[in-house]
Structures are given as structure tokens and as C-alpha cells.
Amino acid sequence: MAGVTDRPFRELCLRYGAGMAVSEMMSSNPKLWKTAKSQQRMVHEGESGIRSVQIAGADPKLMAEAAQFSVENGAQIIDINMGCPAKKVNKKLAGSALLKYPDIIEDILRTVVDAVDVPVTLKTRTGWDTENKNCVQIAKLAEDCGIQALALHGRTRTCMYKGEAEYDSIRAVKQAVSIPVIANGDIDSPEKAQHVLEYTGADALMIGRPAQGRPWIFEEIQHYLENGTLMPERPIKDVQGILLGHVQALHQFYGEYLGPRIARKHVGWYLKEHEQASEFRRAFNAIDAANEQLDALQGYFENVAS
User: Whole-prediction pTM value?
Assistant: First the structure.
């Protein structure tokens, strides 16, 4: 979710029912911290809710230093990423590439836990590939190292995001450890959320891609779990207000040049299920000016979506 779960998006998810929002993944390599992209990801003072900051890397010492740096900049929880399947992350032996090396995992977890006074959590996958699922071993190791909670995506590294997530591994991990286990993967509806909770016994759910363009999914799930009924479909006027507010927040956060460019993908996600929006999206992606984007969206909702 790097490049997606920036501060404007996290604030929006929290507003619409998310219990906690984890930051974009931050590299433990200090040489990368001075880039504009990293600078925008690294300051967390003043954010809403519990501030959980995710770090990634393969060097225990650098990971510990990144954790300490993040705490100094407002992090209240450190989340270690051992789940990212991206090639550019894995080729540096970070993310889910580490699942091949439990000894390195243990070294990283113990070093980071010892380096900070805040809780440390772990995000991981079921294993390297379908023939080598070691998530139960890694979960037990994490618990022994002092990890406070474990989020598990129901796919291996080689699965990337293809196929369907499986929940048997998450259930096995939940039964094997006493720390909280958070289920992740393809939880895209209130009914699916309830099924995953009941099937795995997980303590909580983590939702990523299904919240893209639908940050109110958390509110829908909470309502269903509490009442057993689905919320009415969100009125188009509400979607208009949420989307316009999100785009304005992106413009303000990233500035007049980068803001409109980052807004394009979010607008695409919001409108992906609008059959009448395909032509508008193509035109919208050619707009570079922030005010013109807002005018175009206003026109879309007034003349096309209505």
C-alpha cells in the first residue's frame, strides 16, 4: 500500500470507521530518508488515532535505527514489514523475501523490539511459496521475540496478489500463538469480514486494497458485525463529498504539481464501478491543474453520475 496509504487517505479511513491506520512502508536505509517522498511519509505528529509506522529492511541495526527515528517523529507503534512481495523490495532481501531466512528474521525482531519502548508488530505472509508455508513457525518466533501482534496476509510471496487469499493458514497461526492475530487478504465486503473472523478466530481484520476508492468500507463492516444488517448503499451525493474532499486534501498535502497527479489513481478507484465514468476518467487523467480537477469532478457528479 506504499503510494496509497498516505496521511490524507489514513485520516479518511479513520473518519469512516477504521480502528487504526498504518503508515506507508518506510525504508530502513537512512540514505533514502532525505528524499521528498520519504520526508512526506516520516512525520506523524498531530495525526488522528494511534500512529503505527511501518518499516522495512534486512539489516537489524538499520531497522532498529529506523524504529527509533520513527518513534522520535511521533510513532506510537512500530510495524515491521515482512509481507511486501514487490521485486524492488525483495531484491534487497526485505519484505516477504525474509521468509526464506528465519535466522535473519529473529535477529531483526529482537533488535527492533529491544531498541524502542513502544509496541512492535509484524506484517507477514503465509510463506515464500505454496510448497514452503512457514507462517506458524514465524508466528511462534515472533511471539518469542516480543512481537505484540501479528498481521497475516493469506497468500505466499510468489502468489503476489493473484488468485484468492486462503484462511486456513491464518486459523492455524491463531491456534498456535497467544498474541493477537490480524487476518488480511480479500476482505472486500461486510459478509466476507464476518466469515473470515468466524473461520479464522482472528482478533481483528486488516483491509488494504478493498478500501481504495471506498474508505467507508470500515463503517459498513462495523455496522454489519454489530447489527447483522447491511448499511444502505451510500448516496451518490455522499460519495461526491468524500471524493472532492479527498482530492482537495491530496492537493494540499502534495502541492500543486504532485497533488493532481497522485489524485488521478484515487479518482479512478472511486469511479471504477461507475459504468458511465470510463470516458470521464480518460479526460480527467489529462488534467494537470488542481482547480481544473475539482471543477471536472463537480461537473461529473452534476451532469453524468446523477
Answer: 0.92
